[in-house]
Amino acid sequence: MESILVIIFISLSLATILNIFLKKWGISHIIGYIITGTILSNIFNFNNQNNLHALELIAEFGIVFLMFTIGLEMSISKLKKMKEILFLNGSLQVGLSTIIIFMLSHYVFLIDITSSIIISLAFSLSSTAVVLTYLKQSKDIYTPYGEKSTAILIFQDLAVIPILLLIGFLSNSTLSIPEILLQTSVAAAGIILFMFTIGKKIVNWLLYFATKAKLEELFLGSVFSIVIGTSLLAHEIGFTYSLGAFIAGMIIAETNYHVKVESDISSYKDLLLGTFFFSVGTKIDITYFIYNLHYIFAILLSVMIIKALVIYFIIKRKANKSDSIKAAFALSQVGEFSFAVFALASSNTLLSDELSKFLILVTVLSMIITPFIVNNIYKLASFFVVEFFESDKITPINAKNHIILCGYSTLGRIVAKQLEEKKEEFVIISDDLRHVLLAQKRGYKAYFGHLNKSPVLESLKVDEASSIIVTVRNLTRKRLICELLLSFKEDINIIVNVDTVAEKKSLRDLAIKSFVLAQHEVADLLVQKALDNDLNIKL
Prior knowledge:
Blueprint: H1 2-24, H2 29-44, H3 49-72, H4 76-81, H5 83-108, H6 113-123, H7 128-138, H8 144-170, H9 177-195, H10 198-212, H11 216-237, H12 241-253, H13 258-282, H14 286-291, H15 293-316, H16 321-330, H17 337-347, H18 353-375, H19 377-382, E1 403-406, H20 410-421, E2 426-430, H21 433-441, E3 446-448, H22 454-459, E4 467-470, H23 475-488, E5 494-498, H24 501-506, E6 514-517, H25 518-538
Parallel strand pairs: 1-2, 1-4, 2-3, 4-5, 5-6
Helix pairs in contact: 1-2, 2-13, 3-12, 3-13, 5-6, 5-8, 5-15, 6-17, 8-9, 8-16, 8-17, 10-11, 11-12, 15-16, 15-18, 17-18
């Protein structure tokens, strides 16, 4: 018991210290957790086998909690909204990537069929934990490439269910491939049926009474009971703990309590997810890694190129080149679910220890590289798409006391015309390239970019602007833009166009100096015209 407490104490302390330093250099906290796991495994595994068992328990819990948090994001209503780009693009990406990687694994590297299936399925998955975290923090999740990348990531997370089921059935040597696929489909259908019938009623009942008790610790205890109980049930039926946790997340996502659950676990989520990446670090053999680094890097580079090309051509069918390239870079890596796939396959002797060790190290290297890719995605994309300028690619303008016009749709064009007539100095920023090109054609200073990004604000010299006119129509985008503008400069003069009173009320919590309510302005104009006409008649 004491040794387990020592491991937990040292793990938390070391991870905290490492991440403090890594944060200063802009390196993801995920790397800190992985390094912590590597250091701890090499210290404690050497001395005591019981300590190894403690680390494995932590690793299992990390995977379980990761799957639960992903399940919380999987409400049916959300899937319906994204069904077109989610299921079509997602199935094409996973399917094509799996086929190409399988062909290389089996026919080029001469790996057996079962192992090649596992490798190709695992390598087709990307990193939800890293990429989605970046997309949310950078607000790129609201951009076209971000939406398409998120849809593919969600499909990949859904695909984990049949992949884990398939591995479970592959371990049964008495079944043929068609029988395995049939049993996988039947089992998946049975789980889904249970999830939306009996399981949902039980979860609703438990959370209802936990809420009525009005004790936060009881509600949180109920949530963890549901997660652990569902995981144990799935394991008893013959599936994995992580699959049970995923089901628990999806069940709660369909209840009225999913917002409260997400809110209550938000304080613990990142720390508990850290246990998963800590478990990744425990699997790293440093000596083996150093001696085989060139092979590991070569395989990873090949996989990333294959996935990037597949994703690029899938997205390019209905999107521009810039969004396709950025999505390809964002999703080219091997994801964290690959660890769960390789761990399950190895425990069922479907992969040799040597091959499993190699594949895990390929995935680890991918996880290390990924934060650097996603944090510099616009710089990387600019090498291939020179006509698009975004974030720090905007040349800092030579202006002071200028007006920044956000958006160049119909209203933006009218505002720009009036500013030009009044001979006011202004610049236009828009995330629609067609609008940017049109504005440039008319002789305006116009830039492609998102005003909810700090590098864009710096390049446009927002802190020296006299005012910013926000003409975009989407309420979510208005809020994102205004929030970052106010965080960039508290006393900035923002003028926001709002269409309704309700929209104005929803933005009142922000320190916006001026609102222009379209309905009121039109009403004033109509009355003025009517009065002017009445005066002319009397005269």
